[in-house]
Amino acid sequence: MKSEELRDLVVKALDDLKGIDIVTMDVRSLTSITDYMVICTGRSTRQVKALADNVAVSAKKMNATFVRTEGERESEWILVDLGDVVVHVMTPATRAFYGLEDLWEPVKELRENKSSS
């Protein structure tokens, strides 16, 4: 499965369970760790867990290489590592505190430039 197809599968899985503020970032030019990062907010720890589980189940159904999931215990921030796509599902407070989008400034600037044009 191509990384773009995997990214789209992830976004659909998050959208199906009403994930909030889904952001995809193409980080291929910035890191060799992954091709895309997807960040999403859940309304509660229960929804964060459900969103992450839906991503994992959807990826497995499509025979995607499922690497691992971390953070299920507290469910404030769950990371789903699918190799070419890394998914961060967080509660609103956790997402605001860590500001992952701001850590990837070149991607943030590209997003802002696209939205202003």
Automatic annotation (TrEMBL):
GO molecular function, one term: ribosomal large subunit binding
BP terms from Gene Ontology: cytosolic ribosome assembly; negative regulation of ribosome biogenesis; negative regulation of translation
GO cellular component: cytoplasm
UniProt feature coiled coil, ranges: none
Function statement: Functions as a ribosomal silencing factor. Interacts with ribosomal protein uL14 (rplN), blocking formation of intersubunit bridge B8. Prevents association of the 30S and 50S ribosomal subunits and the formation of functional ribosomes, thus repressing translation.
Subunit structure: Interacts with ribosomal protein uL14 (rplN).
Protein name, per record: Ribosomal silencing factor RsfS
Originating species: Aquicella lusitana
Gene name of this polypeptide: rsfS
